Amino acid sequence: MTPKNTEQPLVSVIIPCYNVSAFVERAIRSIVVQTYSNLEILVIDDASTDDTLQKIRSVKDDRIRVVAYEKNTQKVGAVNETLSHAKGEYICFQDADDWSEPLRLELQLSEFKLQPELGICFTRYRFSGLKKGLPGRVALSNEELRDEFLQFGNKKNKDFDPTSCPTMMITQKALESTGGYHPYFAGRVAEDIQWIYRILKEFKGGTVDKVLYNYSVREGSFTQIQSAGKNAKYAYSWQLLSKIIYKDIHEGIDVLIPEKKKELQVLELESCEEALLVKIKQLNSLQASYENSVTFKIGKIILTPLKSVVFFKEICLKLLKKK
């Protein structure tokens, strides 16, 4: 273990975990070996049903503090509770199925020193797992990040690939001002984006222009489940978040407060309908593409005589029954 340098600011690293036994040791070790060493590493087990907790405890480092929950909170509850006890001047995140490059935290902290007005800082990233390689252009400047998150779903520059939310490092001041994840997003895939949106409303943002994070796209992850259509809420999350942000920015209406419950329900229904229309269009397009394919046309030619034979056989059987 690298010794602490107490002359440097403390960084709290939050690692939320749920049933990530195969990946969690790699994630934790990628933080343990960071070139920046003055860390408190808060590893949360959100009531995993596999041996994730045992794997967490197998990594020995006196900077690690394990927070184990007996009942699953769908990430938001456990992380918010842990954040309330984080002592760092800066707070950053590490998804339990991803891993960071050794220089990540050092270079992010350098960015805060260069730009003291920053409230949040990201890094570039690469994909691994089911999807591999580098994304295209990502938002680097405060203006580009505000366009991405404050105009979510309606952003002007659609040529940018998404910022990787787990790469974020924030100041304690930004945490105190925004309070962490909104409870409404427990079990939804948009919780990171909605919180970042609130931070960027108040604070400047930036991105370190180096690949310092490895983003794993895997079977069973929130992102993969959303695209696979295994959870109804996930299917319309992006449409709903876009409407929530639009209402707040352009109409000054926060539909997430209790008094706006009915208005939120209307947005949920509209978002669900929009997502359904998108899926129907995709299916129709897929069907049209298949029906125009050579394979389909050949199959149709082969099956047409067979259908005639079946039809003729049915007529014969009916005539025999009449006799």
Structure description:
The protein has 12 helices and 8 strands. With 323 residues, the chain is of the alpha/beta class. It has 2 domains: 11-218, Spore Coat Polysaccharide Biosynthesis Protein SpsA, Chain A (Alpha-Beta Complex); 293-322. The longest helix is centred in the last third of the chain and has 31 residues, at 261-291. It is globular. Helix 1 (24-32) links the parallel strand 1 (11-17) and strand 2 (39-46). An 8-stranded mixed β-sheet has the order 3-2-1-4-7-6-8-5, sandwiched between helices. The chain has helices at 24-32, 52-57, 76-83, 104-114, 142-150, 172-178, 191-202, 222-228, 232-235, 237-251, 261-291, 294-322; strands at 11-17, 39-46, 64-69, 90-93, 99-100, 118-129, 169-171, 204-217. Helix 5 (142-150) packs across helix 7 (191-202), helix 6 crosses helix 7 and helix 10 packs across helix 11.
